[in-house]
Amino acid sequence: MLELKSRSARENPTVRRALIPAFLGQRITYLLAGAMTAGVYYALLCLGLLVAKNAVPYLFLVVVSHFITVVLVYPAYRLVVFKVSGVGWLSGYLRFYAVGLSFLGLSVIGLPILVEFAGIPIMVAQGLIILMSPPLSYAIHRAWTFR
User: Fold this and answer.
1) Which of 39, 53, 132, 133 is most buried, by CB atoms within 10 Å?
2) pTM for this structure?
């Protein structure tokens, strides 16, 4: 009698070869979307800082820029990076924004430390904070936001 064994992706080289490019492709797309997100955010924050000319606290501009950026980039993450369907847009956006709020929290806490105490310019300090976030945000979005 012929006995068939179930093989997992780890044991089946064909499945593994198919999963690796898909996973790497998603990572590359995520990095591109992240670069786009950082560019949009930086442009909005820079514009806000130039227009406000110290009339508005920079942390307020960080929050506003973050909110606008999340609204603008969510469709790209949903449709291009994670290719989600079947989950409602609003519930997906709320999850996406919840993750974004945690990183906004890092900015709201980290920026004053870097700007006020270390004397680093706002845009440079924000860049340092942004550089720390991609690996963690990818893992959270992949496992929770767009599951």
Assistant:
1) 133
2) 0.72
